[in-house]
Amino acid sequence: MQREECIYNLIPKVRVEPVKPERYRSKFDPNMQPTGTTFGVRGKTKLEGANLGSAQRMDKPASARGFGRLPAKPDPKSFIRKGERASSAIVSKKRELLERITCEIRTFIHLFALICSGQVQLSRGN
Predict the structure, then answer these.
(1) What is the pTM of this model?
(2) What is the pLDDT of residues 74-115, one digit of tens each?
(3) How far apart are CA 112 and CA 122, in angstroms?
(4) How far apart are alpha carbons 87 and 100 in whole angstroms?
(5) How far apart are CA 105 and CA 112, in angstroms?
(6) Please, how many CA atoms are within 13 Å of residue 61, restricted to the half-sphere of its CB?
(7) What is the Cβ-side half-sphere exposure of residue 78, based on CA atoms within 13 angstroms?
């Protein structure tokens, strides 16, 4: 038997609409900051005014202070050149070694010139 062909379907059903209560409106100011709340106290994101009081304002985190501002443009002459940073330690060691060798060579040349001019006599040890 199909549902459409039932005699009870011929009698219209009475629907009772439930009466909705009036919308709740708090007596407190909705724009006031929460005081003494524990919401937003833990974690990375701190809610403004959480557990402080309505008179106190929380500072923005350091990461969000410049949000939306364009950073200053970098100087195009101060960019790092290819291989500049990677070889700086090697270059400084090579430069130090080269300076030490040149200092020793200058000392050797100076002593050699003094010996050749006869100002310094070499003593041969027995």
Answers:
(1) 0.27
(2) 788 888 777 676 666 677 788 889 999 999 999 999 988 888
(3) 11
(4) 20
(5) 10
(6) 7
(7) 3
